[in-house]
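Query structure, 268 tokens:
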């Protein structure tokens, strides 16, 4: 299992993000689409300045981007990073799409299947880009329908808020020789109870998003903090092995808690 880092980009400079990617000594770094930075541009800028690691988006939102425009951006990122770019896409959530972009979120699964059907051949067309290969394509998928689309049309899935048991029982059986990339909160700490309480309060609104709520319910979980990897060095290593045994091919660490250096040292 490869280890990557999920970089938080809001309010941060490119120099800060590049320095973090260099110092982490991981296999890959991924960025999300929130506010501020464009994720494809940011990933390509980091990849151009940090050799030897993969860079990707987890995720780029499909609804506001035409497949042709996204394919051109992804292939440009692939060229800028010497074929180390990974394009992760997803439909996001109803509130974000309808309130931020003013678009309908009706039938997101049908939208995603149509979108990927159009996007895939565009990513294969590297005309005018010597030496560039098709970037790896991943889909943010949690439920059975979206996982089926990921299996049919992409190289794998991007997961969040999922335990090792959830991966083994709900995700891995629906994918056939495909990548399973999972983002998880990870913290090495001696104050497990205190940090878990803090994270439970911080991320409580996440469970209010219907896509995540359904996924938590399928796993029998109440709060997303139940998917976090929190403990001392030995505990974190044991949990990482459980994810690998469940079928995760790459774990993207979202560092939580105050002791960032200790957590990154344990990953190394």
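Result returned for the query:
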């Amino acid at each position: 299992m490869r280890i990557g880092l999920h970089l938080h980009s809001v309010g941060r400079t490119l120099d800060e993000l590049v320095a973090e990617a260099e110092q982490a000594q991981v296999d890959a770094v991924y960025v999300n689409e929130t506010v501020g930075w464009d994720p494809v541009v940011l990933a390509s800028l980091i990849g151009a300045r940090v050799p030897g690691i993969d860079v990707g988006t987890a995720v780029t939102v499909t609804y506001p981007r035409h497949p042709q425009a996204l394919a051109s951006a992804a292939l440009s990122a692939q060229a800028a990073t010497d074929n180390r770019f990974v394009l992760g896409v997803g439909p996001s959530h109803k509130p974000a799409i309808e309130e931020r972009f003013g678009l309908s979120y009706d039938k997101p699964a049908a939208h995603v299947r149509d979108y990927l059907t159009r996007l895939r051949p565009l990513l294969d067309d590297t005309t005018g880009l010597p030496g560039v290969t098709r970037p790896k394509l991943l889909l943010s998928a949690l439920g059975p329908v979206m996982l089926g689309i990921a299996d049919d049309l992409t190289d794998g899935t991007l997961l969040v808020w999922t335990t090792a048991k959830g991966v083994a029982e709900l995700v891995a059986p629906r994918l056939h020789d495909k990548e399973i990339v999972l983002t998880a909160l990870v913290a090495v700490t001696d104050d497990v109870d205190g940090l878990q309480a803090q994270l439970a309060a911080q991320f409580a609104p996440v469970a209010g998003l219907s896509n995540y709520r359904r996924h938590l319910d399928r796993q029998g979980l109440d709060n997303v903090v139940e998917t976090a990897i929190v403990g001392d060095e030995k505990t974190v290593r044991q949990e990482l092995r459980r994810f690998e045994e469940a079928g995760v091919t790459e774990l993207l660490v979202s560092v939580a808690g105050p002791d960032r250096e200790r957590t990154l040292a344990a990953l190394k």
